[in-house]
Amino acid sequence: MKDIQDLMFQLQKKNDSKIVLYVADGLGGLPQQPGGKTELETAATPNLDKLAQRGTLGLSTPVLPGITPGSGPGHLGLFGYDPLTFNIGRGVLEALGIDFDLGPNDVAIRGNFCTIDGDGKITDRRAGRIASDIGAKLCEKLDQIEIPGVEVFVKPVKEYRLVIVFRGEGLGGHVADTDPQKTGVPPLAAKATEADSEKTAEICNQFIEKAREVLKDDAPANLLTLRGIAKKPDIPTYEDVYGLKAGAIAVYPMYRGLARLVGMDVLDAGQTLDDQMKCLEANWDKYDFFFIHFKYTDSTGEDGNFEMKVKRTEEFDTGIAKIEAMGPTVIIVTGDHSTPSKMKSHSWHPVPLLLAADRCRYDGSTGFSESECLKGGLGQIQAKYIMSLAMAHADRLEKYGA
Fold this sequence. Notes:
Elements: H1 4-11, E1 19-24, H2 39-42, H3 46-52, E2 56-61, H4 71-78, H5 90-97, E3 106-116, E4 122-124, H6 132-142, E5 151-158, E6 161-167, H7 198-214, E7 223-230, H8 238-242, E8 246-249, H9 253-261, E9 265-266, H10 273-283, E10 289-294, H11 296-302, H12 306-325, E11 330-334, E12 351-357, H13 370-374, E13 379-382, H14 386-393
Parallel strand pairs: 1-10, 1-11, 2-13, 8-9, 8-10
Antiparallel strand pairs: 2-12, 3-4, 3-6, 3-7, 5-6, 11-12
Helix pairs in contact: 3-12, 5-9, 10-12, 11-12
């Protein structure tokens, strides 16, 4: 354990309190025009606004000011782990999210099916968001690829997403992504970022060339890009660090994988927000801590669809009343990062944060929005300190020092 994990381990204490971390992925936004309203400010969120009126607000920085986080670092920060200390590859998270048992000789990779034109240039980075059943059939074809010296596993995740695992001796997990993050250019070649991963990069490039042949007649999914190439790290569990028995209620595999990595029990979340709330109710007496993940504020932001992100934010708001009905000691509402629809991508902007508990200092907030959070009593904090605040408000921390 390191730094804040050591301190939490030393100070943790047990009681019957319940903590709920309710995450709207990519929550933070921007106005379409200067002086306008963000998606959150535009949305009708009566439940969040009411909660803010008995809570305290702030803004969280997922990593460091100006640094745009991926979903992995963003969530690690929310869970109280310094994302600069614990660097978790997305491939590992995706593999764990589909219950793939990663071993010490495995390199896990998140794949995205994509569309390329006759010149080999990417025209759609997500292959038109193909249906999951189509993606599964393509994975069956790719799973037949053989590369000397390694075992190859290819498994479907959801829609255009897949997991590739290479198993063999001498594989490192330090290889740059092949996704150029834009259209109109070819996929990048896999390149090792450290000497221990030259073999892995070579295998990645061999796999891509074999996949090009396998998928040549399967447009729009006629190639794939590789992201988050990594090996599974050692990381202390939630129960070790916080003394909390934690349950995760997440639909998308990556977030289920991240929860499993830190020792949470991954519960049957179903497919809808209503399913997730039913799961919360069914498991309420079994856990001290719940992580509830809502994806669609992020995906609509990445699509650049301001109006749909507003609607998804309003859908997220409906979950608050159901959470409150369970009587948690502490409710944390925030996002793992900002995804402004204006930018169609993750961004570095601080993320709205709400903490509600009987022990919190109400800061006079009248609603939940970026502008209200800017004035809130929590100020601007790094995300890795949210869990210590949650633990304190749940009376789960002893005094530090004499």
